[in-house]
Amino acid sequence: MFITLEGPEGSGKSTHGRRLARWLQREGCRVLFTREPGGTILGRRLRRMLLDRRSGRIDPFVELCLYEASRALLVRRVIRPALKAGKVVLLDRFQDSTWVYQGWAGGTDLKLIEAIGRASTGGLEPRLTLLLDLPARRGLARVRHPNRMEAKPLSFHERVRKGYLHLSRRQPGRFRVIRADRPIEQVQQEIRKAVRRVLR
Amino acid sequence: MFITLEGPEGSGKSTHGRRLARWLQREGCRVLFTREPGGTILGRRLRRMLLDRRSGRIDPFVELCLYEASRALLVRRVIRPALKAGKVVLLDRFQDSTWVYQGWAGGTDLKLIEAIGRASTGGLEPRLTLLLDLPARRGLARVRHPNRMEAKPLSFHERVRKGYLHLSRRQPGRFRVIRADRPIEQVQQEIRKAVRRVLR
Question: Which of A93, A105, A135, B49 is 20 to 30 A from A149 in CA distance terms?
Answer without folding.
Answer: B49
